[in-house]
Design a protein that fits this description.
By secondary structure, the protein is mostly helical. The protein has helices at about 25-30, 45-55, 65-80, 80-90, 100-105, 115-145, 160-170, 180-195, 210-215, 230-235.
Length: about 240
């Protein structure tokens, strides 16, 4: 049976072949990425292993052997769970641009290797992409509705923009979103509004200036998130 493909028009591919996820492993992987943001492309395991074997390593610059890459692929299945994905989404309310060292600190129950680090970084990249797409969408919508002053744009817990974001990162609505995230969302929305009104979107790289502003607005992630069982402590009934 051909491998199912789910594709989003605005998300980059993960670049992981379905051939590497036979049977129940594929099901686990699809559950782990249980939204339309993920593209899974069919491809043989051999192609993945060859690619990984050619890839340079970490600090020593050495590539992994085929056997090592196979072990790394297996550890992704064993090391990352749907709970890790949910935890990462909740962390996004505090940090949009986590470093790899931060991820290792907050996912201490995961045995890290290049593949797992890359996958976690990819999650946050996907989170950011959805976030910025929503910001541009609502900024253009406001302009089309006749908004001319940036001060007219506000984001609150009852705003449609906030509801869209909360539904994506906190679908069960069982986590209290911090006020700081709402403040950052308002700043982001206004940055997009000002850039579009000024015609900066004519430049293909116009969003980079916004990214530089937003990356400085990360806040500290609560220490509670360092616990492997943090979801039990953080989520309310």
């Amino acid at each position: 049976m051909p491998c199912p493909v789910t594709e989003s028009p605005h998300r980059p591919a993960l670049g992981i072949g379905c051939g590497a996820w036979p049977g129940s492993s594929l099901l686990i992987f699809m559950q782990l990425h249980n939204d339309a943001s993920v593209l899974v492309r069919p491809g043989p395991e051999a192609a993945f292993l060859a690619k990984m074997a050619r890839r340079g390593g970490g600090g020593d610059g050495a590539g992994c052997t085929v056997a090592e890459c196979a072990v790394e692929r297996r550890e992704i299945q064993e090391g990352l769970s749907p709970n890790h994905l949910k935890k990462a989404k909740l962390m996004f309310f505090f940090t949009r641009y986590p470093s790899s060292n931060m991820l290792k600190m907050f996912f201490s129950d995961v045995k890290f290797n290049r593949c797992i680090t890359s996958q976690l970084i990819k999650w946050f990249s996907n989170f950011r992409e959805f976030y910025y797409i929503q910001m541009e969408k609502f900024a253009r919508q406001a302009i089309n509705e006749g908004v001319t002053a940036v001060d007219e744009l506000t984001v609150g817990r009852d705003a449609e923009l906030f509801r869209a974001l909360n539904m994506h990162y906190n679908k069960a609505n069982d986590f209290e979103v911090p006020d700081r995230f709402i403040e950052v969302s308002q700043v982001t929305l206004r940055e997009f509004f000002n850039a579009i009104v000024a015609g900066k979107d004519a430049d293909p790289s116009w969003k980079k200036a916004i990214y530089k502003v937003i990356c400085k607005l990360d806040s500290e992630v609560p220490d509670t998130f360092k616990s492997p069982n943090c979801l039990q402590e953080l989520l309310h009934d």
